Amino acid sequence: MGIVYLIFILLAFFLIVRPVSTLIHELGHGIPALLFTNKKVTLYIGSYGDPEKSLKLKIARLELFFNKNTNHWGTGLCIIEESVSINRQLLITFMGPIASLTLSLVLSYIIFCTNINDGIKMGLFVFNFSTYYDFFINIIPNSTPIVLHDNTQTYNDGKQIIDLLILRSFTAEYNLGIELYNNKQYDLAVVQFENALNKGFNESIVYRLIWNSYYQLRDYNNALKINDIFFNEKREEYNSNDYACSGLLKSHFGNYQEAITDYNMAVELNPTNTIALNNRGYTYNLIENYKSAMIDFNEVISLENEFAYAYNNRGLSKIKLGHFKEGLSDLNKSMSLDGTNSYCYLNFGIYHYDNGSYNKALEYFNKAKEMDITTHRIDQHIKTVKNKLMG
Fold first, then answer.
1. Is 28 in contact with 96 (CB distance < 8 Å)?
2. For the chain, how big is the Rg over CA atoms in Å?
3. What pLDDT, on a 0 to 100 scale, did the predictor assign at position 1?
4. Which residue among 49, 65, 71, 355 is least packed, with the fewest CB closer than 10 Å?
5. Cα dihedral sign for 241, 161, 191, 81?
């Protein structure tokens, strides 16, 4: 009977206690991250960022991936999409161990200060051991890197907290840059980020923020320059999103094959990176490889069924493959999800142009240019349809 009971306790520990304990720890990171940001927060339970073979649960901006193999549920990871100040990053990092410790203290009180059934007490004791373990293993700084699913590296909470405290002492420019960046004052933000970089704060996040600031300013030459520096100096930290951004930038310069190579790497590192998949499909459209583009857009929509850009881009692929009715349906779906996208108007114009309705096409092309003068090839489309009308 004793052996059976021991086996039961061990099974409960690995199948129930460790997953719940890990989830609570990661929610300790995730909840303040949701409070401090406006973008998606992703928690991985049972992996270091691997969405494959995982059960997905989405609650508003919180996305959770539970590894189907419960043997790995002692590991976890919190990913936030939006950049935050060092002080907020410190709090988000610190709250993981605090969540574990708080639960540990509550369980300790119940176990030692209340009269409960011995069987329940034993179960809570096992749970309590797991939460204390999570606290100490994470709060004690460990310089051994943790290799994530996309081959980048991170460190445990304690090491990250120490590093952030050190960085906070000389990164006033970074914090000011974040404030300006979040206020969309990209021209001022990039100055602060470059000052921080010049003072030795050469963290990957700084390169990413400089890159995106230049991109938002449509200063693609400087964005390409910082992208190359980042890749050469921090290649081991270059992740799926970085390759996706690099591909987008290269496509702006017409280097479509190089862009596709970057997107391929982004998808290889993270097969559910919908931005990379959508942008690769968009690039396939540009080089008139519409069948390959369709595969990417179908995958994006299966992963995120309200991705307006994917419907818009898939609509163009269908139109170019001669499936006009289905293509128009996708364009209408995209418009219902996001009516502020100039590329949707562009593709409506292409639809009408391909159907010989040149006046209607010109109307949509002009609307696209009015919404965003940098819409790709918009002047070329307007010139072409005007020539048709004049001829």
1. yes
2. 25
3. 43
4. 71
5. positive
| Contact predicate 190/206, CB 8 Å | no
Query: What's the pLDDT score for residue 267?
Result: 95
- Mean pLDDT per 10-residue interval, the chain, length 391 residues: 46 59 91 93 90 87 87 82 86 94 90 81 76 89 83 86 79 84 93 89 89 94 95 89 94 94 94 94 96 97 93 96 95 93 94 93 94 91 91 70
User: Following CA atoms 216, 218, 222, 223 in sequence, which dihedral angle do they give, to the nearest 10 degrees?
Assistant: 50
pLDDT at 13: 43
Residue type, 107: L
Task: Please state, as a whole number, how many other Cβ atoms lie within 10 Å of the Cβ of residue 262.
Answer: 26
Which residue type, as a one-letter code, is found at position 72?
H
CA distance 331 to 278: 15
- Residue 147 domain boundaries: 2-165
Give the pairing of strands 41-45 and 62-67.
parallel
**Please, which residues have CB within 8 angstroms of residue 169's CB and are 6 or more apart in sequence?**
none
Q: Work out how many domains the chain is built from and give that number.
A: 1
Contact 294, 310 (CB under 8 A): no
Residue ranges with strand state E in 177-241: none
Please indicate, yes or no, if residue 58 is contained in any of the structural domains. yes
- In a domain, residue 19? The reply is yes
How many other C-beta atoms are found inside a 10 Å radius of the C-beta of residue 124? 18
Residue type, 1: M
Residues pairing with 54 in the sheet: 67
Considering the entire predicted model, what is its pTM?
Answer: 0.66
246 within a domain of the structure (yes/no): no
